[in-house]
Automatic annotation (TrEMBL):
The modification N6-(pyridoxal phosphate)lysine is found at residue 88. Pfam families: Arg_decarb_HB, Orn_Arg_deC_N. The gene is speA. The lineage of its organism: Bacteria, Pseudomonadati, Campylobacterota, Epsilonproteobacteria, Campylobacterales. Its cofactor is Mg(2+); pyridoxal 5'-phosphate. Keywords: Decarboxylase, Lyase, Magnesium, Metal-binding, Polyamine biosynthesis, Pyridoxal phosphate, Spermidine biosynthesis. Catalyzes the biosynthesis of agmatine from arginine. One of its GO terms (biological process) is spermidine biosynthetic process. The active site is at residue 485. Signal peptide: none annotated. It comes from the Bacteria. Belongs to the Orn/Lys/Arg decarboxylase class-II family. SpeA subfamily. This is Arginine decarboxylase.
Length: 614
């Protein structure tokens, strides 16, 4: 069962802390997320907002470099450690520009998988820091890679298939003296585990088989380019949840490295393990997703490669990693307001008893008035059964709409009253079953398709919690509904994996904000504009030494006009048609037309998220 702290001790990595009932950044001055949002509200920001925290990007970079430095020191490892950030994980400038700046002291580089990503890397990468290029390449992309080398970048083009190598050999003959380094992606037998494990294994989309590797070495020798072959690469999948498959893959890759060096590839110096370092997304102990720490990962990688290099009598390879999720996930939090609770209308004042009510309504009212902790479970079961009976009576014509409404209200009132009374008195499974049955639906101002696409596509869980009221026990088992017109836009209460409890609130009277955490990796770039809900407003929150925080790069979500423009609509035409239709309407007078035209202008230039309900 989710604890009162929403599992922050499991997924939070000490980045957040609860103080005075609010989620705060766990830094010296502990600013609360709610205060940050209030500051944004003063700048007229409404709707969902994505907060970026550069101090959390820095923390992840430092952790990776310091753990590998420590592991290498402890093992007296003679190779070097390098890392590149894979742009595919999040290419937004609000993230990338901060990352490049923060990575400068470490010579942290970038990985690209397409022409736009490579050009981005060539423009922004810290000079001298490595660039690696993975993915399928045409002659043009290879040319761009050569241009990067001609600019002076330390770039490695990783070959996914022999035809790419042939294209590189051809390009090398056509171009100038500087040349990129060449990496070979090896197709390993070993695979990862978990939902993102398809990148490894003998049937994977990428990499050279042993036969192709031998052929590649021969081709490189013939072209006099063997000295440019410096790296082998593999990637067994993202979010590797167990360390064991990585160790198997490393053993395989380490042996391939040694064999290739023995074949004369004496400039082969590095093994690139790709990405895959996992993030703990779970809010409950029973469904934790990762069985290792970064410390263990670094120790295992260094130890294994040292052992293989020593036993095969080859130089200890430089270690390269391309972890993206681990670097980016924690830096972003989506904050979205609850717009409505679906049972909000079920209040006592809405009851409308008649002089004579059906017996079952009287019975429900009795249950409501007399429920207490000793009978809560029994009364709750009775109430749910009575609701079924009322619906049957209604269908048969023995109860009218007023009776039905009274029944619905009373059952919901009994549910609300019973949940705190049940406490932990009963068998957990019983309670969770009941809570599953009586879950409240919270309508939240965000698009799941835009902001949590991996939940939609893969049911990947992301931590969710309210930003305040954390000193009060939440009483409602909750499912989250987004604002798209799509029934897939729902995060259901799940007694095992998502036992989410929220507070009973009146959304028309108080702002109740939910935080969706660990959304900084993949979610922004994979997000879909379903229903034309686009990337939400974003803000970068920079912490100052004096304890204050500063909001930088406030970027409002696109206006309706810009969204339609992006879809290649003719904006002038749309505005013209809308204006004409008002001008020609004989349903409103001239003064009203002027007013409506002004309103239309504002709506078209505002963002598309909801402001409030009702
Ligand atoms: C070749 C390569 N390197 C690195 C990564 C980044 O992986 P992760 O974000 O899991 O660290 C990926 C993503 O799947 C990849 O395909």
């Amino acid at each position: 069962m989710l604890d009162k702290k929403y599992g922050i001790g499991i997924w939070g990595d000490s980045n957040f802390i609860i103080e005075d009932g609010e989620v705060c950044l766990n830094t010296d001055f502990k600013p609360s997320l709610l205060d940050i949002v209030k500051q944004l509200r003063k700048e007229d920001v409404r709707g969902p907002v994505l907060l970026r925290f550069p101090h959390l990007i820095k923390k992840q970079i430092v952790e990776i470099y310091s753990n590998f430095a420590r592991a290498m020191r402890e093992s007296e490892y003679s190779g070097n450690f390098s890392a590149v950030y894979p742009l595919k994980v999040n290419q937004y400038p609000g993230f990338v520009k901060n990352l490049v700046e923060l990575g400068k002291p470490f010579n942290y580089g970038l990985e690209a998988g397409s022409k736009p990503e490579l050009l981005l890397a060539m423009a922004y990468n810290n000079f001298g820091a490595p660039i690696t290029v993975n993915g399928f390449k045409d002659k043009e992309l290879i040319n761009i890679g050569f241009i990067a080398a001609e600019m002076g970048h330390d770039i490695t083009l990783t070959i996914e298939g022999l035809s790419e190598l042939e294209a590189i050999i051809e390009t090398a003959k056509e171009r100038f003296t500087p040349k990129p380094n060449i990496g070979l992606r090896v197709r390993l037998h070993s695979t990862g585990s978990g939902i993102w494990q398809k990148s490894g294994g003998i049937n994977s989309k990428f990499g050279l088989t042993s036969t192709e590797l031998i052929e590649a070495i021969n081709l490189l020798k013939e072209a006099n380019l063997l000295d440019k072959f410096t790296m082998i690469h593999f990637h067994i999948g993202s979010q590797i949840n167990e360390i064991h498959p990585l160790k198997k893959a490393l053993t395989e890759a380490g042996n391939i490295y040694a064999e290739l060096r023995k074949m004369g590839a004496t400039n082969l110096k590095a093994i690139n393990l790709g990405g895959g370092l996992a993030v703990e997304y779970s809010q409950v102990k029973d469904s934790m997703q990762r069985n290792y720490t970064l410390r263990e990962y670094a120790n295992d990688v260094v130890f294994l490669l040292k052992t293989i290099a020593n036993s095969k009598d080859v130089v200890e390879p430089d270690i390269f990693i391309e972890s993206g999720r681990y670097i980016a996930a924690s830096h972003a939090v989506l904050v979205a307001p609850v717009l409505e609770l679906f049972s909000q209308e079920y209040t006592e004042t809405k009851l409308n008893f008649k002089a004579t009510n059906p017996h079952i309504i009287d019975e429900l009212y009795y249950l409501y008035q007399n429920i207490k902790s000793s009978n809560a479970l029994e009364y709750l079961h009775d109430a749910i059964a009575h609701m079924d009976s009322i619906l049957t009576l209604f269908d048969l014509g023995y109860a009218d709409l007023t009776d039905r409404s009274n029944g619905e209200i009373l059952v919901h009132l009994i549910i609300k009253k019973s949940i705190p009374l049940l406490g932990n008195k009963y068998n957990l499974t019983d309670i969770l079953d009941i809570q599953n049955e009586v879950q409240e639906r919270y309508l939240v101002n965000f698009s799941l398709f835009q902001s949590l696409p991996d939940f939609w596509g893969l049911k990947q869980h992301f931590p969710i919690m309210p930003l305040n009221r954390l000193d009060e026990i939440p009483t409602r088992s909750a499912s989250i509904w987004d604002i798209t017109c799509d029934s897939d836009g729902e995060i259901e209460f799940d007694p095992k994996t998502n036992p989410l409890f929220l507070h009973d609130i009146d959304a028309s009277k108080e702002e109740y904000l939910l935080g969706f955490f660990l959304v900084g990796a993949y979610q922004e770039v994979l997000g879909m504009d379903h229903n034309l809900f686009v990337h939400p407003t974003e803000a970068t929150v920079v912490l100052k030494d004096d304890g204050s925080f500063e909001i930088q790069n406030l970027l409002e979500s696109q206006s309706v006009i810009d969204i339609l423009d992006d879809m290649d609509y003719d904006i002038d035409e749309i505005q013209y048609i809308l204006n004409q239709r008002i001008e020609k309407s004989d349903l409103v007078d001239e003064k009203q037309k002027k007013h409506i035209l002004g309103e239309l202008y504002l709506f078209l230039n505002d963002n598309g998220y909801l402001k409030s309900i009702g």
